[in-house]
Amino acid sequence: MAATIKDIREVTGLSLATISKYLNGGNLLPENKAKIEKAIDELHYEVNEMARGLVTSRSKVIGVVVFDIANVFTCTLLKYLGERFRSAGYAAMICDSQNNEQIEAENIRFLISKKVDGMIVIPVGLTAEFLNPALRAEIPVVLMDRSVDGSGVQCVKVDNRESSYRAVEMLYDYGHRKIAMIGSDIEVTGKEREQGCRQLLKDKKIEVPPEYMKIGRHSIEHGYKSMQELLKLEEPPTAIFMGNFEIILGAVMALNESSFQCPHDVSLIGFDDLIISNLSNPRITLVVQPLQDLAENAAKLLLGKMDKDRNSSDEEPEEDTQMPGDLILPARIVEGNSIARVE
Amino acid sequence: MAATIKDIREVTGLSLATISKYLNGGNLLPENKAKIEKAIDELHYEVNEMARGLVTSRSKVIGVVVFDIANVFTCTLLKYLGERFRSAGYAAMICDSQNNEQIEAENIRFLISKKVDGMIVIPVGLTAEFLNPALRAEIPVVLMDRSVDGSGVQCVKVDNRESSYRAVEMLYDYGHRKIAMIGSDIEVTGKEREQGCRQLLKDKKIEVPPEYMKIGRHSIEHGYKSMQELLKLEEPPTAIFMGNFEIILGAVMALNESSFQCPHDVSLIGFDDLIISNLSNPRITLVVQPLQDLAENAAKLLLGKMDKDRNSSDEEPEEDTQMPGDLILPARIVEGNSIARVE
DNA sequence: CCTTGAAAGTGAAACGTTTCGCTCTGTTCG
DNA sequence: CGAACAGAGCGAAACGTTTCACTTTCAAGG
After folding, report:
1. CA of B340 vs C1' of D27, distance in Å?
2. Among residues A111, A115, A138, A9, which one has the least CA distance to residue A58?
3. Domain check: are B285 and B298 in the same one?
4. CA dist B25 to A18, B30, B59, B114, Å?
5. Cα separation of B336 and B274, whole Å?
6. Nearest to B279 among A50, A51, A252 (CB)
7. Which of A196, A298, B53, B187 could make an SS bond with A50 (beta carbons 3.0 to 4.6 A apart)?
8. CA atoms within 13 A on the CB side of A179
């Protein structure tokens, strides 16, 4: 039904090779150029990327696999990634793993069969095997936000440990000594944030009662329940560090329903989102990730790898590039007024 | 580099046709089946969807074009759409129009060249021309959330007029008479919500001072500035209807910074999101769209169209199906405690 | 024992591009 | 004037599948 290059041949009398040359930006007589353009216009011709891809074995598509698409963190990244890829001439094919490692593995295989030229992956869990098919197919991969054990695949992320350390340090500097944390340990990210928190408490020689460390699922429910439990303690904490967006959401919900006031009765600092702090009153002090930076660096890294891949396909081993480490960006703390000074 | 069907032929000694038959679920001798499976496993064979698509002229990909990817509304829809398409064997290729009609038009053309089997579009603006290339290429299209003038393309959305009417009616029933609205008119959706609001005020014979109707851009800034202006009025409204998520965000931000208390000094009702109301204190009463329903209906509609398209390609005109109208779903009001009763 | 027909397998054409190596036409320069 | 060369265009092969029309095999039915 749709017009093909052959239809253009009929109309213009030129050969397929010439028309293809035009489509790919070669030099033609102005006269022939005009003819082709006219024909394209009349016939509403659009390149069939499948046919093109079959020959070039490049799809001009980058696969993006995210652990969960329905949250602000993910879609903000998607936005910046998409812009970047677009301006490099690539489209993004986005796959949602729905927080399910099996679906994640399927997504990878699916994208391979679609012959994507590269992949960005924000993994669901901690292990790396699911990436093997992609590596085997020699598709360049860059991880984001969460590194995985022993994959040897580069990851672009923030320094979760360091940032958490500084967040809790801020609570300490405001005079707080009874500090609790609500976090998760499903993903590396959560683990690292917990480590940062524990490290500071250790450095400051603060004993942490085990009931102050609420480490559980990465979910609104966990935040909600944990906050309730913390507030019910005989000796509730005076300050709480919340490890991610969902947990903040749940925790603040519980706090709003309680008789406790922030920051009067309890101080808060959280990790992960900026927009939401505008809604709560008082505004919550947050560790904010440089999402645009993260996305742009990941995109740049991937596009670079893709370039190199294509050029070094001339059978040069070139194994001197010893596995570069993760790319770690700094996060910044944006102050609200959710932290009270304690004498 | 990657294994092809021909490699499998080498290993198994079977013909291409037979192997293809296996891949597409035909009947084979158990013995041959086993041979092929073994070969596929050993060679890590994955179908090349580009080659397949070239022959079948179906990509098993559905294009999704959204006006802006970086917001909760969009990505929640994307989540449900994705699940639905996946279970029907389709992948989603998501394109962000970045609120820019030109990029939107490019996205459509891009998806056509990718030979997507269908499209879901949440348009940026009010006009329909940008869809023409898709219609010309006979690609089934379903709109979501925002219908466009005279496209003849079906849209799945909520009844914005009716829902707004009921939202404002709720304010009225609580005794409010000084009712303001902060809304947008960039998209149909915003216009319809404004109409619903005005209709109720008219039905109740309430005069609206023009400075009470803050209709502007669909943005946090507009919400923020409008709220500031409303609160500064000599006779500020006692209740405010906020037309979408971004506006709620900005408006609540301004309110938090002011000396006004909700609901004591001003009552609020908003349109569009559920999660956020958990963060604000008090919880804001909201008109919530049935996102899952919207997505599932849109997906079903599109898959249906795609089916019909494929089957009726037998040159039957079958023009009896007179253009079905939009599919309109009801929204529901979720009460918070942001509305005070006025005597 | 012959006929019929279903089941399993095959060879080759087709899908719409790109690309390689070739030809043709001028133009430049010694 | 002839050689050399650049620019423009061309024909045909190739990419990895599916599918059509055909053949072979074998069991069942009369």
Report:
1. 85
2. A115
3. no
4. 41, 13, 18, 26
5. 10
6. A252
7. B53
8. 32
CA atoms within 13 A on the CB side of A108: 27
Residues contacting B142, CB < 8 A, separation 6+: B118, B119, B120, B121, B153, B154, B155, B156, B298, B301, B302, B305
Residue of A nearest to B254 (CA): A278
CA of A35 to C1' of C27 (A): 26
Contact, B337 vs B283, CB < 8 A? yes
Q: Which residues touch strand D (CB under 7 A)?
A: A 13-18, 21, 27-29, 31-32, 51, 54-55, 57; B 2, 4-6, 16-17, 19-21, 23-24, 45, 47-48, 51-52, 54-56
Going by C-alpha positions, the residue among A77, A73, A138, A124 that lies closest to residue A298 is: A77
Pairing of strands B267-271, B285-288: parallel
Asked if residue B300 has pLDDT above 80, the reply is yes
- Please indicate, yes or no, if residue B342 is contained in any of the structural domains: no
Using CB atoms, pick whichever of A50, A133, A256 lies closest to residue B50.
Answer: A50
Indicate whether A154 and A296 sit together in one domain.
Answer: yes
- Under 8 Å CB-to-CB from A209, ≥6 apart: which residues? none
Asked if the Cβ–Cβ distance from A94 to B92 is below 8 Å, we say yes
pLDDT at B317: 46
Structure tokens at B279: 């963060």
What residues contact A236, with CB distance under 8 A and at least 6 apart?
A178, A230, A266
Chain A residues with CB under 8 Å of B252 CB are 278-279
Q: A159-163, A278-282, B215-219: which range is least confident on average?
A: A278-282
CB atoms within 10 A of CB A194: 21
**CATH number of the domain where residue B152 is located:** 3.40.50.2300
* Residue A183: pLDDT over 80: yes
Residue B285 and residue B173 share a domain: yes
- B206 or A308, greater pLDDT: B206
In a domain, A339, yes or no: no
Provide, as residue numbers in chain A, all residues whose Cβ is less than 8 Å from the Cβ of B50.
50, 53-54, 59, 114-115
* Closest-approach nucleotide to residue B6, Cα vs C1': D16
3-state secondary structure of B131: helix
Same domain? B192 vs B283: yes
Q: pLDDT (tens digit, 9 = 90+) per residue, A262-275? A: 999 999 999 988 88
Rounded Cα distance, A93 and A89, in Å? 13
CA dist B110 and B107 (Å) reads: 5
pLDDT score of B280: 84
Euclidean distance between CA atoms B12 and B333, whole angstroms: 63
Are residues A192 and A232 both part of a single domain?
yes
- Mean per-residue pLDDT of chain B: 92
Does A224 lie in the same domain as A282? yes
Same domain, B140 and B255: no
- Which domain covers residue B42, as residue numbers? 5-56
pLDDT of A316: 46
Residues B72 and B245 sit within 8 Å (Cβ to Cβ): yes
Do A256 and B283 make contact, defined as CB atoms within 8 angstroms?
yes
Look at residue A337 and tell me if it is in a domain.
no
B-chain CB neighbours of A109 within 8 Å are 46
C-beta of residue A78 within 8 angstroms of C-beta of residue A108: no
Residues B284 and B272: their CA atoms lie apart, in Å, by 11
Q: Which residue of A has its CA nearest to B89?
A: A110
Q: How confident is the model at residue A308, as a pLDDT?
A: 84
With cut-offs at 50, 70 and 90, classify the pLDDT of residue B309: confident
